[in-house]
């Protein structure tokens, strides 16, 4: 991991979280931020680390997750720029309950000390509300994932993952939707609460039915309305 300091305010203004905060507050953050770069599978933080910084993902892809009792990795979120990482530190978390790993080489993030963010949140109630709304949306996403695990079978969960990813990250090409990604089939299994073998089987079945086409770095959904 490589670290450096010294930034222009333009970088912070890329993040909606900081829209509308004062020039003085932007200067305050820029003077205290650090920038980090990560190799593939390098930890941004690990379970049990002190929750003393939040991270702003500027480039790359990051997975957030934990481990089941049997040691299996469980991925809760796959994050892309521009977003916040480690936000529960702003809600009183003292030690990390999850891990955050870069899953793409050249991932870059800015970090801000929790005490500095909390100082600004006390000054600017609009910033505090945006942080609260962001945490709420993240928790809602986890709740939806839990409902999927309870009420859907493995095939339905994998298809729901494909549809959700297509809606959030896909690019329309006529009736087709192209998803570019950096996930392995094991990653997809860890996201959907299935096994790699099940992911392989379901994906191959969907390809044989001409509903999708895929390779290591992309998935093409032929027609979202027919994917079921």
TrEMBL record:
This is Crp/Fnr family transcriptional regulator. The keyword Ligase does not apply. GO terms for cellular component: cytosol. GO terms for molecular function: DNA binding; DNA-binding transcription factor activity. CDD domains: CAP_ED. The keyword Transcription regulation applies. InterPro entries: cNMP-bd_dom, cNMP-bd_dom_sf, Env_Response_Regulators, HTH_CRP, RmlC-like_jellyroll, WH-like_DNA-bd_sf, WH_DNA-bd_sf. It comes from the Bacteria. Residues 17-138 form the Cyclic nucleotide-binding domain. Keywords: DNA-binding, Transcription, Transcription regulation. Residues 152-225 form the HTH crp-type domain. The lineage of its organism: Bacteria, Pseudomonadati, Bacteroidota, Saprospiria, Saprospirales.
């Amino acid at each position: 991991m490589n670290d450096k300091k010294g930034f222009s305010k333009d970088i912070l203004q890329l993040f909606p979280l900081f829209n509308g905060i004062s020039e003085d507050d932007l200067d305050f953050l820029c003077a205290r931020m650090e920038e980090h770069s990560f190799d593939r599978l390098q930890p941004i933080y690990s379970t049990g680390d002190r929750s003393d910084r939040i991270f702003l993902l500027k480039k790359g892809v990051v997975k957030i997750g934990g481990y089941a009792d049997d040691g299996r990795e469980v991925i809760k979120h796959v994050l892309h720029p521009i977003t916040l990482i480690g936000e529960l530190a702003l809600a009183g978390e003292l030690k990390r309950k999850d891990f955050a790993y870069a899953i793409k080489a050249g991932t870059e993030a800015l970090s801000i000390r929790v005490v500095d963010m909390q100082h600004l949140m006390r000054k600017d109630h609009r910033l505090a509300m945006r942080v609260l709304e962001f945490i709420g949306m993240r928790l809602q996403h986890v709740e939806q994932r839990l409902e999927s695990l309870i009420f859907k079978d493995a095939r339905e969960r994998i298809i729901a993952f494909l549809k959700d990813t297509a809606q959030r990250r896909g690019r329309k090409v006529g009736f087709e939707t192209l998803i570019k990604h950096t996930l392995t089939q094991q990653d997809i299994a860890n996201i959907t609460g299935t096994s790699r073998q099940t992911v392989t089987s379901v994906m191959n079945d969907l390809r044989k039915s001409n509903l999708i086409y895929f390779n290591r770095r992309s998935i093409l959904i032929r027609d979202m309305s027919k994917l079921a």
